[in-house]
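Support request from a user on the community tier.

User writes: "When I paste my C-alpha cells into the form, the page sometimes reloads and wipes my input. The last time it worked, I copied everything first. Here is what I submitted, just in case something in the input itself triggers the reload:"
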C-alpha cells in the first residue's frame, strides 16, 4: 500500500480492484429481475466485505479507521483536515434509492434510504476543510475587497437602460392594453490582458461511461482552459463517480500551478457510477470555504451519465450556489445523459444548459462558457420598473427572479457579459381615465449594479417609457420591430417548454401541435426579420427532436431543453450543430464577440 498527500487530492491510494468488485456486484444485482428481488444476506455480506475498495477511492480516512491492518502511526500521516468529515456514505441500491453505510453502527449495517434522503445525512465528502486556496495577487486582492457605498446616479457606467413601446401612438378616450420593452444593454468588455481574474471549479464526470475517447476529450477541454488562464485566475479540479474527490485545490494559475493542474488532468481515469450531487457538493464547499475571492466565480459541471437521486438534493445545492454568488454551468454530452436534471440546474442557476451531442466538441463548449465569464462587466443587476399615471403593470415576461413592492417591480439579473442584452417584455393596462394628454408616461425604468470595470456600485438615471395620444386610430402605424421580435422570442420559448413537457409525458402528437400552432403564428407576421427567421428555424428543429419517442430519448430532449433555456435567459455558450446537422442560427442571436473569439481559439488549440 502507498500513501500520498499534498494539493492533488490529499488522500491515501490503495489498489482499486476491491472497488471494482463491489461495483460489479451491484451491477449484477441490478440485472436481476425486479419482481420479487430482495437484497440477500449473502449479497449484503459481499458488499460489506468489498466496500473497502470504495472507501479506498473516496473515503481514505474511514478505511484507516476501520481496517485493523493500519497502524496508529500510519493513521497519523493523514492530513488533519481529512479527519473532519461526514459520518455516512451513500451509493446506489437496487431499489433506485441509495444504500447507507452507518458509522454509528461500526460499519456492520446497511439500510435502504429513499431517494428523498437528506443530503447532509448521507452525501459523501472525503474532506471538509478547503481553506487552503492560494492567496490572490496583491492587485487582485485589493480590487476584490471594494466597499459598497450608496451609488450615485451615473450615465457613465457599463450598462444602459432603454425603453420602447409597441405602438408609438395610442387612441385617447379608451382603455387599452399595451406591450412595452425594457432593455438592459452591456457595453464592450476589457481586453483579454485587462479582464477580471476568475475562480473556477471544474467538476468532471469520471464514471465508467467516460472510458475511452470521452475521458480523453474531457482532459483535452480542461487543458485548454488551463492554457488560457491568466496569472490572477485560480482553478480547482473535482472529479466524481460514485463519490467525489478534490484533485486540485484552488490554485493560482502561474507556471507552477498550471504544471500541477496539467499533471493532475493527465492522470484522471474513468470507472464507477455517477453521483452529480457529490461533485456539486464538494465544488460548493470549495467555493464556500475559500479564504480569498476573485470577483468572478463559477462552477462548471460536465457529465454524460444518468443520476437517479441527485434531483431530490438539487434545491439545497442551488440555494448554496446562490448564497455563494457562484453560478453553475451544466454541460451534458452524448445522447444518454440526464437532460432533465442538467436543465433543472440551468433553470435554477439562470445559466445556459449546454448539450454537446458530438463529444469531440466539448472543448468548444467549455471555451464558450469560460470566454463569456472572462468578459463579465456587471454583477448583481437590479432592474426596477415603476408604472406611471395610473397605468397598471399587468405582466412581466422574464426568466429571472422578481419581486413586487407597492407599484415597483424589481428584477434580479446575476451578471452580464460584455455586449450582452437582457430584454424584459411588459404588458401594461392604460385606463381611459388618464387619456386627454398629448404625451403619456407609462413606465419608469432604472438599474442598479456592480460595475466591475470601475469597481463600484452604479445607479443608472431613470428612463421613461412614453407614448403619444391621438384622437383617431392610425391604422398605418407599424408595430415597433424590437418589441415584435421580443414578443416572438417569448412566444417561441413558451411553445418549446410546453412541447417539452408534453413530450416528457409521451404525448408527442400534442407536442407537435403546440409547435405547429406557434409556427403558424410566426409565419403570419407582417414583417419577416432576421430574428423571426431564426426563431422559425428553431421550431423546425424542434419538430425533429420530438417526432417520436426514439428521437426524444436519443438527444431530442436535451436539444430542446438547451434551446428553450437559451432563449429564456438570452445566453448561450456555443454554436454547436443541432440534432439535424444544421448549425443553429438562433445561437448567433446571443453569442458575444468574446465568446466567439474563445471558441475560435479552442478550434485551433493543440490538445
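"...and here is what came back when it finally went through:"
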Amino acid at each position: 500500500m502507498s500513501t500520498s498527500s499534498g494539493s492533488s487530492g490529499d488522500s491515501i491510494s490503495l489498489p482499486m480492484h476491491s472497488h471494482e468488485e463491489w461495483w460489479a456486484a451491484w451491477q449484477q444485482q441490478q440485472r436481476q429481475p425486479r419482481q420479487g428481488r430482495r437484497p440477500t444476506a449473502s449479497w449484503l455480506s459481499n458488499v460489506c466485505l468489498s466496500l473497502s475498495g470504495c472507501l479506498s477511492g473516496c473515503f481514505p480516512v474511514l478505511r484507516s479507521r476501520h481496517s485493523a491492518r493500519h497502524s496508529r502511526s500510519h493513521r497519523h500521516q493523514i492530513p488533519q483536515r481529512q479527519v473532519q468529515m461526514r459520518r455516512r456514505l451513500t451509493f446506489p441500491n437496487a431499489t433506485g434509492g441509495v444504500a447507507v453505510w452507518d458509522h454509528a453502527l461500526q460499519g456492520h449495517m446497511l439500510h435502504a434510504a429513499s431517494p428523498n434522503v437528506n443530503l447532509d445525512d448521507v452525501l459523501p465528502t472525503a474532506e471538509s476543510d478547503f481553506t487552503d486556496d492560494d492567496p490572490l495577487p496583491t492587485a487582485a486582492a485589493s480590487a476584490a475587497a471594494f466597499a459598497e457605498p450608496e451609488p450615485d446616479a451615473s450615465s457613465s457606467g457599463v450598462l444602459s437602460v432603454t425603453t420602447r413601446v409597441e405602438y408609438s401612438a395610442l387612441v385617447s378616450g379608451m382603455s387599452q392594453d399595451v406591450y412595452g420593452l425594457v432593455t438592459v444593454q452591456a457595453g464592450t468588455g476589457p481586453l483579454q490582458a485587462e479582464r477580471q481574474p476568475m475562480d473556477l471549479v471544474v467538476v468532471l464526470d469520471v464514471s465508467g461511461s467516460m472510458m475511452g475517447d470521452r475521458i480523453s476529450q474531457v482532459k483535452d477541454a480542461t487543458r485548454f482552459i488551463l492554457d488560457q488562464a491568466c496569472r490572477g485566475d485560480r482553478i480547482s479540479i473535482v472529479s466524481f463517480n460514485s463519490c467525489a474527490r478534490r484533485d486540485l485545490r484552488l490554485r493560482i494559475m502561474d507556471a507552477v500551478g498550471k504544471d500541477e493542474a496539467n499533471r493532475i488532468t493527465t492522470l484522471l481515469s474513468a470507472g464507477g457510477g455517477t453521483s452529480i450531487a457529490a461533485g456539486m457538493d464538494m465544488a460548493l464547499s470549495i467555493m464556500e470555504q475559500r479564504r480569498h475571492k476573485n470577483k468572478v466565480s463559477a462552477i462548471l459541471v460536465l457529465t454524460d451519465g444518468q443520476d437517479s437521486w441527485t434531483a431530490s438534493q438539487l434545491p439545497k445545492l442551488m440555494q448554496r450556489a446562490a448564497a455563494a454568488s457562484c453560478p453553475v454551468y451544466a454541460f451534458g454530452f452524448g445522447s444518454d445523459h440526464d437532460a432533465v436534471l442538467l436543465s433543472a440546474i440551468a433553470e435554477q442557476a439562470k445559466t445556459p444548459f449546454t448539450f454537446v451531442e458530438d463529444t469531440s466538441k466539448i472543448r468548444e463548449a467549455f471555451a464558450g462558457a469560460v470566454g463569456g465569464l472572462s468578459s463579465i462587466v456587471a454583477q448583481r443587476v437590479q432592474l426596477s420598473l415603476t408604472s406611471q399615471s395610473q397605468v397598471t403593470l399587468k405582466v412581466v415576461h422574464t426568466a429571472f427572479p422578481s419581486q413586487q413592492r407597492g407599484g415597483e417591480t424589481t428584477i434580479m439579473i446575476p451578471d452580464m457579459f460584455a455586449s450582452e442584452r437582457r430584454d424584459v417584455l411588459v404588458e401594461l393596462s392604460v385606463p381611459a381615465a388618464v387619456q386627454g394628454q398629448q404625451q403619456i408616461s407609462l413606465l419608469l425604468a432604472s438599474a442598479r449594479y456592480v460595475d466591475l470595470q470601475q469597481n463600484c456600485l452604479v445607479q443608472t438615471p431613470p428612463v421613461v417609457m412614453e407614448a403619444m395620444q391621438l384622437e383617431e386610430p392610425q391604422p398605418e402605424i407599424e408595430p415597433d420591430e424590437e418589441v415584435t421580435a421580443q414578443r416572438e422570442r417569448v412566444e417561441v420559448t413558451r411553445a418549446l417548454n410546453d412541447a417539452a413537457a408534453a413530450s416528457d409525458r409521451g404525448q408527442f402528437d400534442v407536442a407537435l401541435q403546440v409547435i405547429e400552432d406557434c409556427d403558424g403564428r410566426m409565419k403570419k407576421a407582417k414583417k419577416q426579420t432576421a430574428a423571426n427567421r431564426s426563431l422559425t428555424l428553431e421550431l423546425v428543429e424542434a419538430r425533429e427532436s420530438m417526432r417520436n419517442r426514439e428521437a426524444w430519448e436519443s438527444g431530442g430532449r436535451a436539444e430542446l431543453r438547451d434551446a428553450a433555456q437559451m432563449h429564456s435567459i438570452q445566453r448561450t455558450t456555443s454554436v454547436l450543430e443541432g440534432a439535424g446537422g444544421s448549425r443553429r442560427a438562433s445561437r448567433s442571436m446571443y453569442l458575444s464577440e468574446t465568446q466567439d473569439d474563445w471558441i475560435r481559439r479552442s478550434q485551433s488549440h493543440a490538445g
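Agent notes: The reload is a front-end session timeout and is unrelated to the input. The longest strand covers residues 439-451. Residues 247 and 584 are 36 Å apart (CA to CA). Escalated to web team.
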